[in-house]
Amino acid sequence: MNRFYGTGVAIVTPFQADGQVDYTGLKNLINYLIDGGVQYIVSLGTTGESATLTKDEKKKVWEFTAETVNKRVNLVAGIGGNNTYEVVEQVGAFNVTGYDAILSASPHYNKPTQEGIYQHYRAISESAQLPIILYNVPSRTGSTVSAETTCRLAHDFKNIIATKEASGSFDIFNQIMRDKPEDFLLISGDDPVTLPMISLGAAGLISVAGNALPKQVSDYVKLALEGNFKAAQKGHLELIEFTRLLFTEGSPAGVKTALKQLGVCGDAVRLPLVQVGSKTAAAIEAELHKINVVLS
């Protein structure tokens, strides 16, 4: 479980101007994150625009990412969807080489009951060759994985090892920490609430902002996990406005703008997403200057 303490980054998928995957940009980004001190990378989560990639593109991105990472940090694959049978098939057929876990978001659109969510993850658990990280993100899925369901899954299936919690509900966080198995990990799925979640016992963060600022994010998360909350608070507060701006016109458009300004990769996104407007881009650039990072 120590593999998923600290800072993980839900990595973006860089695209060329014509919409094709930019593998040079992806390589640059992976090396930038590893040099920035992150503990693990999540490939093709929501932030990776996985919903707009074909099956063949996903396979190639996963393989390229594993080859580029080359076991320098831990690696997680995002595999989810609202067709349980299709997700089970993808999980069962996934090439696990170089990967340490699978992150799977709760089904979107269908709005299943808690029993439906439980049975969905049960089916995934029974087909998986790797440990499973649950992902509760009601703002995107339209339904919530309750604390009771999370802990039921954690107790019933030993290969379900963690949950990425992006519900924003401290009632849910508190109940999970109280009722989970001792070795089950609560991981923040929202940059702005990571510090208070760690104070409850969370194991760290899967970050969006960390794409652009891996050192700043991983440094303050490390301080918090060490119990140095006064020092961690400074880093946390420094990033609040930057993180807010990243989501002003949708994710990952905002963080891709920052990555372009930093010279890491381009800012192209795939429809239905569009690039941020000039006003937001200028505000992101100004905030990067305040944080004292070097722009390209």
From TrEMBL:
<dbReference type="InterPro" id="IPR005263">
    <property type="entry name" value="DapA"/>
</dbReference>
<comment type="subunit">
    <text>Homotetramer; dimer of dimers.</text>
</comment>
<comment type="similarity">
    <text>Belongs to the DapA family.</text>
</comment>
<feature type="site" description="Part of a proton relay during catalysis">
    <location>
        <position position="46"/>
    </location>
</feature>
<dbReference type="GO" id="GO:0008840">
    <property type="term" value="F:4-hydroxy-tetrahydrodipicolinate synthase activity"/>
</dbReference>
<comment type="function">
    <text>Catalyzes the condensation of (S)-aspartate-beta-semialdehyde [(S)-ASA] and pyruvate to 4-hydroxy-tetrahydrodipicolinate (HTPA).</text>
</comment>
<dbReference type="GO" id="GO:0009089">
    <property type="term" value="P:lysine biosynthetic process via diaminopimelate"/>
</dbReference>
<keyword id="KW-0457">Lysine biosynthesis</keyword>
<keyword id="KW-0456">Lyase</keyword>
<dbReference type="GO" id="GO:0019877">
    <property type="term" value="P:diaminopimelate biosynthetic process"/>
</dbReference>
<protein>
    <recommendedName>
        <fullName>4-hydroxy-tetrahydrodipicolinate synthase</fullName>
        <ecNumber>4.3.3.7</ecNumber>
    </recommendedName>
</protein>
<keyword id="KW-0704">Schiff base</keyword>
<keyword id="KW-0220">Diaminopimelate biosynthesis</keyword>
<dbReference type="GO" id="GO:0005829">
    <property type="term" value="C:cytosol"/>
</dbReference>
<comment type="pathway">
    <text>Amino-acid biosynthesis; L-lysine biosynthesis via DAP pathway; (S)-tetrahydrodipicolinate from L-aspartate: step 3/4.</text>
</comment>
<feature type="site" description="Part of a proton relay during catalysis">
    <location>
        <position position="109"/>
    </location>
</feature>
<keyword id="KW-0028">Amino-acid biosynthesis</keyword>
<feature type="active site" description="Schiff-base intermediate with substrate">
    <location>
        <position position="164"/>
    </location>
</feature>
<feature type="binding site">
    <location>
        <position position="206"/>
    </location>
    <ligand>
        <name>pyruvate</name>
    </ligand>
</feature>
<dbReference type="InterPro" id="IPR002220">
    <property type="entry name" value="DapA-like"/>
</dbReference>
<dbReference type="Pfam" id="PF00701">
    <property type="entry name" value="DHDPS"/>
</dbReference>
<keyword id="KW-0963">Cytoplasm</keyword>
<feature type="binding site">
    <location>
        <position position="47"/>
    </location>
    <ligand>
        <name>pyruvate</name>
    </ligand>
</feature>
<feature type="active site" description="Proton donor/acceptor">
    <location>
        <position position="135"/>
    </location>
</feature>
<dbReference type="InterPro" id="IPR013785">
    <property type="entry name" value="Aldolase_TIM"/>
</dbReference>
